[in-house]
Predict the 3D structure of the following.
Amino acid sequence: MPGPPWLILPTYDEAENIEQAVAGARAALAAAAPEGFRILVVDDASPDGTGVIADRLAAAHPEVEVLHRPGREGLGPAYLAGFAHALDRDAGFVFEMDADLSHDPADLPRLLDAVRAGAGLALGSRYARGGGIADWGAARRAVSRGGSWYARRVLRVDVRDLTGGFKCFRAEVLRAIDLPTVRSHGYAFQVELTYRTLCAGFPVVEVPIVFRDRRRGRSKMSWRIAVEATWLVPALRHSARGAVQRAGGHAQAARPARRSDVG
Ligand SMILES: Nc1nc2c(ncn2[C@@H]2O[C@H](COP(=O)(O)OP(=O)(O)O)[C@@H](O)[C@H]2O)c(=O)[nH]1
Ligand SMILES: [Mg+2]
């Protein structure tokens, strides 16, 4: 029997969203994993008091806990700290989800189903058939689509949504892809983890999701983070294979991912 699913929720100034995100995730995971699940909020000392709210949620709900980090380091390092914490405690599956409600917690069970059915990684995909983006303007759509297209061409993989951050990993995958050598912080972090998963030979499945813009609070992503992706992605082609080999896996030619259009 694999260990329980762990949901990692990175937060930086999400005081207006964290309660609803945790409530939605608790309801969805209670249905999908009645045998037990954990929710780990990873807060980088948010100035707006998100960490205090998260502590209150943890006190009220035994399945919720908080990892407090001393300062803001970026999304990638927050996830890596959360992954290490969950893997040390025998997680069987590990989710990534934004805490701003752009990702609908009600989609968590479909991601988990895809991994339980054999995927190494299930990607919540805006660009798979049936997926979408509810309310972005044309400029942001073009940047996101262009970023996914660019990464897909450079890395030569058949994954439509490479930059998305709504994911479920089989824990074995995170152990096989040498997480301590992951250096990217923002969108490139998402590309890097998916590419390493493919290089290690695990099937990646895209599950259609609809992404909604946040209603409250501000985005933490910047042009600097987007630009990071344009120069890091070509370097991934070389670094990812070495990383997977060092971790004891067998780097494979990244082959087309199987996609799921199962709604
Ligand atoms: N712990 C932590 N969380 C972060 C950091 N930067 C962003 N996040 C969280 O990562 C998620 C996605 O960030 P967001 O600003 O919504 O990015 P966007 O959706 O691409 O605009 C949200 O839950 C943020 O609060 C960070 O430096 N540290
Ligand atoms: Mg967001």
